[in-house]
Amino acid sequence: PPTRCHSPPHSRYTPMLDTIDIYAVSSVLESKGWNMFTGQKPKVMSVCLGEQHLQSLDAWADDLRAAVKEVVDNPGMKLSGAAAVYGAASTAPDEVLDEILRSYNDIRTMVKKK
Prior knowledge:
This protein is an alpha+beta fold.
């Protein structure tokens, strides 16, 4: 499916897909080792880009195309990683969501003890 770019060039790329689950696409990309950022209202997935990313853009674009195909070929696929958190968060009541997100942030930002 075609994507729309929702950001200025050379800062971040935010593909917005109206016909498939962007959280599932993000989940597939995370499983391939890409660090994706997702958001709600609208549902978006973005990746921050810097000059050092120029050498890996083709690989990311190939993985993005493959991820979109995988999601299209497997409707209703189970989400994993950070995408699963956003998928679940979109259906939770606000008070539950607040507690979930605080705990999730604590876990994601935890520093390992030496």
